[in-house]
Amino acid sequence: WPRDLSIPNYTENERSMLEIVTFLFSVSGLLVLLAWTLTGRSIGGGSLGVWRRLALCWFTVCGFIHGVIEGWFSLYYTIIPADQSFLSQLWKEYSKGDSRYVIADNFTVCMETSDCHVYGDLSVYGLLWPSC
């Protein structure tokens, strides 16, 4: 929105929404399985409980979303409208609901960059040092 918004150099996505969402959920699912498997191993003679392991799976997915996906936006927000890389197409698909992401709105860029560095880093910290 708005439907008559003019975006210089904008190119339509090569991938469908279904392809983008399927890949995104597949990667997230694989990360959850990896985190679940790795946290199931004995650490220092003790094992983690189910709720702690689920929390670490959550931090893994949050680290991926905030670090990789939002990190992509904060680095490449100026070229996303014309770019056909997977993550740029993901952001163009997302921007169909909120055009601020494809027009490089200053507030949105600042907030996504802050989210990337704060939530992404904290998620990785929580994953690597679960006893804290």
UniProtKB/TrEMBL annotation:
What's one GO MF term for it?
A: steroid Delta-isomerase activity
A GO BP annotation? cholesterol biosynthetic process
Q: Which PROSITE patterns match?
A: EXPERA
Which stretches are transmembrane?
20-38, 50-69
Protein's cellular compartments: Membrane
Keyword annotations of the record = Isomerase, Lipid biosynthesis, Lipid metabolism, Membrane, Steroid biosynthesis, Steroid metabolism, Sterol biosynthesis, Sterol metabolism, Transmembrane, Transmembrane helix
Give a GO cellular-component term.
membrane
Q: Which part of the chain is the EXPERA domain? A: 51-132
UniProt superkingdom: Eukaryota
The record's section on InterPro entries has:
EBP (IPR007905), EXPERA (IPR033118)
Name of the protein described by the UniProt record: EXPERA domain-containing protein
Q: Which organism is it from?
A: Ictalurus punctatus (Channel catfish)
